[in-house]
Structures are given as C-alpha cells and as structure tokens.
Amino acid sequence: MVENVMTAGYWRDRAAKTRAKAELFRYQNSRANLLKIAEEYDRLANYAEQQLLRAPRVNLSGRSP
Q1: Which of 53, 48, 36 lies closest to 12, judged by CA?
Q2: N or C: which end of the chain has fewer CB within 10 A?
C-alpha cells in the first residue's frame, strides 16, 4: 500500500495555486476567503517541516554513528 505523503512542498504549492486563483475573483470577500485558505496551507507546510525536523534519523550505511 502506498502512503500519500503530503510534504511541506505540497502544501506550499497548494498555497501558491490558491493565491493565484484568488487573483481571479472579482469580489473582495471571495478573494479574502481564498487568501485565508492559502495561509492555512502555509501553516500546514510549516507543520510538515517541523515534523520532518523531529523525525528520527535513519542510518542506512550500516555503520555506527
């Protein structure tokens, strides 16, 4: 089974696409709502980065550190 890994890059890409889409909206409320969603995607990206920093390091060389 393949896991769907959502990396920081994935969330930053979603944020950028959402901001670009917001520019196409005429109504300020709609644009503001999309920009809030983009901010949430950025928060998810930051969270993903923090989780990666906290993840244990795996030694693939077979040697002791």
Answers
A1: 48
A2: N
